Fold these 4 entries.
Entry 1:
Amino acid sequence: MASTSKKAASKAAHSDVMQEKFVESKEFRMFCLAGLGQGMIYSVMSSYISDFYTNVMKLPLIFVLLLMLLARVWDAINDPLMGMIIDRHTTRWGKMKPYIVFMSVPIALLTFLMFYYPDLDKTDLMIYAGVVYVLWGMIYTAADVPFWSLPNVMTPNPNERGNLISVARTFNGIGSAVPMALYLVAGLVLPGLCAKMQASDNDLVQAFFNKFTVVVGNTINYDKMKYILIAVFAAVIGVILYVSSYPHVKERVVIPDKKAVKGEPSQLSRIFKCKPLILVIVMGILSSGRYMLQAASVHVARYAVYIGGDLSTMTGLERSEAISKSIGTVSTILSVCSAVGMFGAMLFMPALIKKFNYKQIVVTTCTLGFVASLLTSLVGYFVVAGKLSFFICIPFLIISAVPLGVLNVVSYAMIADSLDYMEWETGYRETGLGSACQGFVNKLGNALATAGIIVMYLAIGLNPEQMLAKEAAVAATDLSMTMRYAMFSLISIVPGISLLLSTIPMKSYDLVGEKMEKITFELAEKREERGIHIG
């Protein structure tokens, strides 16, 4: 009788975990604002680094391709290593929080250096780009893995954790749109500003103009100036928002550090034996093509679609300005479509999570994204051929971007649920290493998307260095129909196929419904028995 009463009381206490709110409102807001700042910094790299390397620095395409892929090989070592460090060490400031402060200045500095174009010969320029890119990836890992591990220790309530991740990822997405908005503004403002700077008698103005522009004949290319201004803004404002969360975030779920014990499975082996976690990782890798919707937008704007007047009737300066405005307008439209689809999905995620499980949401939205991408590809053929307006693609592009928002939220929540499963089954919770896997998948996805773009350049024989040596600006209409449609496929059928493939591993994912509820209740009981503190 007493045993029955004890079990009933225990069940009631553990059910409270599913209902109780642990995260304070200000703490919630500051964590989300930090996510916004982080999104600004990451978006500069993920959206524009391929364009900067290929069309501004004019680095060899093969070099850029190898850099992206080899850097990910290093990340395969670096990211898990960072996760292990987090899992094995707790400082007096906490397990995750110290990295928010210590990594903020280095990541801001490296973001600036990544988009700074030094006066070096081609070989030295490749060395510079390679070193800065790899260092940026390492420091970003040291900032990203602990930050997105925080929801695991901020609350033991999986529902509250899912909501926190959902809202924070939404803010992160908003932050990622800021550099895109700045790109449009720069495209509209810089042509006139650069013309005035060129005519200025001020030595400092002339020095700045000469450093960050390229003049070929009567045309001005100001891409260097555009990117350095965007990078500085995103780095400074992004880091301020990111680091401001430090005093407000609290680590409540205090799990003792795990030391390696001879004869016990290693941390990595526990990761590989956690089937739900592996399925989420495979899903993330297979869906890598979705990153092209953002990463390829500038490339498509440069070499697939032109919006503007007849270039053949324009002078050199007029032509340069018209091409620049077209690139800015088209890339912004693509970015806005991506943002609308992504943010729309993310805003509805809290409501969707209450009605459907993660598996249902992923399979449905990714299938929808594939259908929309297929329609974009069909309509896009006639758009590129000049028979239909580019604006007809907008609704299809928006729908195809819905999975971006869904996966941006759900993947992190599913990782957290998988770590609950691991702790429930083995007694070990590799929070840092599990989050590192998600960080690695994100970087791998962006690298594969960038690699896909570079491979497309090589496949169709598109060489920016040769073209831009003759003119400061090249229009999409200067290319053949085949080349233009091939570039357009980077935001249509290619990401669509990737989304469809990502649904395959979800067929075996089963951390849903009653099984997940059982894990939550029993895990709370096991934590209580082990004396794990939640405060």
Entry 2:
Amino acid sequence: MELNEAQVNKATSALLKYFESTKKNDLLADDSPVWLVLSTKILPDNSRVKPIKIPLKYPIFDENSEVCLITKDPQSEYKEMLKELGITRINKVIGVTKLKKKYKPYEAKRQLCSSYDIFLADDRIIPIVPKLIGKTFYEKKKQPVPIKMKKGVLLKEITNALNSTYFFVNNGGCSSIKVGLTSQTPEQIAENIMYSINYIVDKVPGKWKNIQRLSIKTNKSVALPIYSSLPDEAKKIEFEPIKNETEQDEQDEQ
């Protein structure tokens, strides 16, 4: 089973045109992630603490991205390791003890979550991380990504982490995976989708047979379908002008 590349290109073009039209009316609007929304026919048995790494052709994290690294204690040891290796992509290092004490209040966790684009964490502490960071990180899909903190592989681990996106498997039948940015071109986003889709589907129990629908959206748009498991339904998919969430709600009420 394969996605129709032409259809994916039409969808990414339509989505970015809509985003640009809304941005003209909101000068303060920030660039948005582009999400691949995956709906399955059968619910997964359980959720995963560790996100699944998915490679991208065009990375969504760059030199301007804010990166936070969560480490074992003492955090000073790992700050020194980063300095020694000449690694400059990490903006903040937080040890477990500091995470427990300084970021215990809900508001402190919320501010921490909003301050960074991606969180990395020593893979040895991943099992204890969920209760330390709270639900805000999961709601924003910013669960820390596990990396190996051995000196010989650390640079490669960080580079690979920042060149990937992540599939967070939950208990529901719908998952969202960041596959691009509105600052990228429609072609780059489409290539990211085509490049990563088989990696993503391979992690779904039942693979393509369990995929009900695939759509793409921004933070504030409705979802544009790019694949449906029902042939007749797929034929009906048209790339009409996208309504924002308010317009869609008003239409549903009529």
Entry 3:
Amino acid sequence: MCLDLLKELIDIKMAQCERVVNDVLDTVDFIAPDERVMFRTCSKEKDRVVFQMGTADPDRALAVAQLVENDVAAIDVNMGCPKEYSTKGGMGSALLSDPEKIETILTTLVRGVSKPVTCKIRILPTLEETVSLVKRIEKTGVAAIAVHGRMKDERQRHPVHCDYIQAVAENVSIPVIANGGSQDHVKTYQDIEKFREASGASSVMLARAAMWNPSIFRSQGALPVDEAIEEYIKYAVRYDNNTFNTKYCVCQMLKDRVESPMGKQLHAAQTNAEICEVFGMTDFYKKAQADLESRKKDLQQSSSSDLFDQPVLDGDVITMAVKFERREYPPQITPKMYLLEWSRKEKMEQPVYETEQRVQDRAFQSTVLVANKKYRSTLWEKSKKFAEQAAAIVCLRTLGLPEGRIGEENSGLVNKRKREQRSRDVSQDSGITDSTNRKRRSTEPSQKEEQESNDKITVVNGSCGQTVP
């Protein structure tokens, strides 16, 4: 399930994502730094879903493929998308004019991942050029190739060139997947086989026909569109789909009815709850949300007795598998601030952080030195700041110290911050500057001090490291 408004998943976005197991939804989520879910999948589709990405860089493509390969059935590179958001970055159909880059990207992927690698292209201006490119692609070791039977400047109103797809299939030994038949060829399940035969392909890929009615793949025949919409919305709600993605997909199924009163209501909807209201599914939505909340509580109760992992000594470093979740801490409070305050009270040197950056996915891992002992989380973070916070958490938990999480409101630093905020509010209301408070605050760790750490990051790739300023 792509949650970014149905645009293809672009490698540069996915490379920044973190893989998160979502126990509530029973899914695996790939989450961007801004907390958006870019890709969500589940064990039921692990052996079926093919992860398609837009890319123009072999190394970045490999990093993304390695990030998702254990959760998908295959990796596909989209070399046929003619949309500007894809081509302006050298991706999609822009790659068709650079066969060498195509070869490099696919060869890198085939050698670097354990799952089958495929690609999708559009046909070139001549049959000879098309066959030549496909033969070159075949030599990279891809498992199959999808051919959209239109040139990159052609659109749905232009007829699909089945003869080009057939010629490709006759000239290569790998499976050829026919694409582009939704507009003219595929209206029913039986039409899928007719399109396959007309193009001489081994199988068929559908996009628009599947968006118009996802049940077109039912051998018994497609469901009525309204029934398909209802079934789709149920999946969207159960798996907490992005509202705008849900709305887009339903609009595709409504087609000409998108300007009807129902369609206008759908356009105005801003949440999945409001979408359910449009289609008379409010009761279903409430029950689905109640089920999710119940599952959350069950998971919290089952994990409450084993909230934190136990520290493990790895060489001279004490490690734990923890991550920093900003939402679990009050505003203006972080584990680093707690650790800094504790160090000062104990009259010890300020904690020292060293951070490594992993090349393949740009993730970070920090080690903090406190009282001549090193602490580190075994989990990599999406930013240097988060990695340092995770290291501080390991230290605090190992020492049995509070870290400022919500629920630890009785801890000293939280109470100080609350008193400071109340004092600032009073001062602002009265127009008086409280110099006493300002003096007292100067002896406590500020956000700026808390953020200060070593000005070096070690960039790592495998076992090698290079220190850069």
Entry 4:
Amino acid sequence: MWREWNLRVAVLISLFFQVLLIFIAPSRKNTKNRIVTLLVWGAYLLADWIAVLSVGLICSGQGNDCDEYCVKDDLAAFWAPFLLLHLGGPDTITAFSLEDNELWLRHLLGLFIQLAAVVYAFWQSVPNQFQIPTIFMFFAGTIKYAERTRALYLACFGNLKHSMLPTYALLIKEVKLMLDNIPFGIANGKELETWDEESLTPNPLTDIDVVKNGYMFFQIIKRLIVFLTFTFPERHKSRKIFLEMTCKDAFRVMEMELNFMYDALYTKMVVVQRKIGYAFRFICSVLIVVSFALFASHHKHQLQPLDIVVTYTLLIGAVGLDFVSLVKLIFSNYTIVSLNNSNAEEIVFAIKERLSFGERCQRSNFVSQHSLISDCIINEQFKWFERVVDFFGLKDFFDEIQYKRNSPLTDDLKEFIFMEIKNKALQAEDPEYSKEICSAKGNWVLSQYDCLHPSIVNSVKREVEYDHTLLIWHVATDICYHKNEYSDEEKNSQNREFCKILSDYMLYLIVMQPAMMSEVEGIAQIRIQHTYKKAKKVLKSHMNVKPPNIFENFKKFFQSRQSELMLERIVACQILGLECNVAECGCKSVLFEGCNLAKELNKLGSERRWEIMSRVWVELLSYAATHCGGLAHAQQLNKGGEFITFVWLLMAHFGLTERLPIGSCMVGTTH
């Protein structure tokens, strides 16, 4: 019975995965939900597997004797090209991760193998009563599969970097223009200050302006993904425009840049939005519709009724998926960018918003949070459960469920970060000075304040490793935040809340996104484990920790305990602030240094304390943003993205990068 049904079931399952992917794949760019990611990952892998299996079933069944319930060879050969369409995949996903783009050669080989298999199946069925529609569908499937392979090739790291490398002639031309049009002081690293006022971005930006500016800046920031840097004109243009923008508009433009970046790295848009892409898409659509019409007009009295239903399902699915892809392509941001008619732009944008298919991105509205002290409390209560999930290799997955929480990212916090970085940018017209600012990890901020205790200043010295500084300030922030003698005014302090959100966010990145933070994390994982042990030791001796009850804790694991955990966390922080000493913590431990830092910070006036701490946290965030490679930021786009990526883009647009713009060395040596 399975032999009679396997092919029919396989081709329908293959179609189901295509429908699933075209609608759910875009959702992964604006959610960090692990269930959504798991669903997309499973559908992405199974879609290719079931399509290849189906082609194999067709080839193995051709020419074999079978009973009346088997699929006829003519019809099976007609089904085979549909699987090429499925292997081409929807426009909404070509790669699940960046690493998939590096496998474009394997996909190219797969293209040739599957084409050969489909041709073989067709050859075995000759003479075939569905010969013409089969040939038309074959060419349509070939186009779709080739589009996917081409998209993977264009998004691979080597090709991306090669396509953006400036030619020697271009560099010479740029330097010549700079020397001809700027005062001679440019030779000492000064930047061009002339600017066409008409080219400044209007303020505030309309939705159309956001799309067009997002695309313009995407063409520039692509360089950062492959470890290149801006040219002088690009840095100048980007810096000027962003200095004129409001915080709200800047984040909207950066959101759009990330949309374009996601499309270029994970979808077919970079292939199909070109003129030749539109031409092939039109040809493909015509071929599919003509195949449908030819099959519908053909005599089918020799076919099983069930097979006719399956064939029409495949045809309707092909037409429907192609129609959805075509509509999404026509009413896309790329179309808006290519139009020069304001009325047409408004119409396309309005329709695009209505047909967004859940693709509206809100990457910058939430940040993940993780607290070292909360981790200590929960870890002690669920130690038994951790051993079980660790045995099955699921520890990281359940750690996110247990320890991670989301906090809304308010407009006030965005504005605060934006203004902090903007104020630095205004002082960093010289690229060399901007490099110095980027290397600061709290010391630049503290240098602006007098009479600070040496332990505060020493915690951010250049010699101290970044992860060490971050952990010290995280412990200190938790203790200061949960201090029990705050006035109502201080409890409502914005800077106090900013510190807590940024502190927990940075620890989340270090603990749960180590791959992204690999450039700055040092031996953070070792330090964190050591600090956990020290904190647990102190807390156990001063808190009433009951022996764990396995059934009670299993029940608690699946219940919301936010209020209870918050109370325990406050008590824990107050204990650490009062009881942590050299004997228990060790004079060289992060925990002791954090507690000592908290004591010195608490001696400052309330307003001054939280102002200093919030500015230090922005500088620590900025340091991590610029020192994480562009590739690390790009790898997060398919998982909902990270807020630190916005900070990375913002600093780049303000000209705050460690690498000097292209041409600076050449110009700097001209005298």
